Hints:
Helix content: over 70%
Oligomer: single chain
Strand content: under 5%
Amino acid sequence: MKHLSKKCHSFDTDKYIHWIGAVGILIFIITQAMEFMGISEVCVYCRTIRSCIGLIGLIMVLPICPFFSRLFAVVIAYMGAHVAAAGIFMNIQRATYVTEFTVLATFALFILAAQVMIIISFKGNKE
C-alpha cells in the first residue's frame, strides 16, 4: 500500500515576487482611481489599507535589501492589518450583519498576510 501523504508542490515565490508586487500596486492604483472617480465611497480605513497593500507591492517590485525591506514590510502590514481588523469590527458592530465593507476588509487582511509571507520567504537571487 502506498503512503498517502504526497509532497506538496510549493509555489516558487522567488520567481514571481516582482509580478505579485505589481499586482499589489495595480490593486492600489485601480481602487484609488475608483475612489477619485466617485465609483466607490470615500473611506479612510479603505484608503489606509490599500495604501499599505500598494507600499508592500512596491517593496516587492524594488530590489530587496533583506533586513530593512522585510522589517518595513512587516511594520506596514501590521498597521494595515490593524486598520482592517478595526474596520471589520466597527462595521459588524454598527450594522449587526456582514456588509460589503466587511468582506472587502477581510480580503484586504488576507492580501496583506500573503504579501508578508511572500516577502519573508523570499530568498533572493540564487546566482
